[in-house]
Amino acid sequence: MSTPEPSVFSRIVAREIPAEIVFESDDVIAIRDIAPKAPVHLLVIPKTEQYRDVAELAAGDPALLAELVRVAQQLADEQSDGEFRLVFNTGERAGQTVFHVHAHVLGGHLPEGSLA
Ligand code: 5GP
């Protein structure tokens, strides 16, 4: 069986694809989304691509999920007013396009009531 291709986010971690990196630790990287849906739109991503979505991550490594939330708050404090929407698209029909778990951090002036 052939090895699956690395995800776009693993390629960003490996510096094979450029991205604006706004945070990096041993386990987590955060980048600015290439197609922002809010004034501040960041992606907080575990470096491992072993978890496809947030449900797998919660089951497999709850501490790493908590770390994603901690980093989201830190970045919202640094880059916006500390308030943010955290979105995990989970599954293709829910809009997930990259099957390497990632949190969308949306901040700035969000449209009222929108779930964008
Ligand atoms: P999903 O649709 O899986 O929830 O989110 C994937 C996100 O990754 C999208 O918002 C998309 O704009 C972003 N994205 C996809 N490819 C790249 C890339 O090469 N660089 C950056 N910075 N963001 C990307």
UniProtKB/TrEMBL annotation:
Classification via PROSITE patterns: HIT_2
UniProt motif Histidine triad motif: location: 100-104
InterPro entries linked: Histidine_triad_HIT, HIT-like, HIT-like_sf
SUPFAM superfamilies: HIT-like
Pfam families to which the protein is assigned, alphabetical: HIT
Span of domain HIT: 8-116
Name of the protein: Histidine triad (HIT) family protein
Record organism: Conyzicola nivalis
Record lineage: Bacteria, Bacillati, Actinomycetota, Actinomycetes, Micrococcales
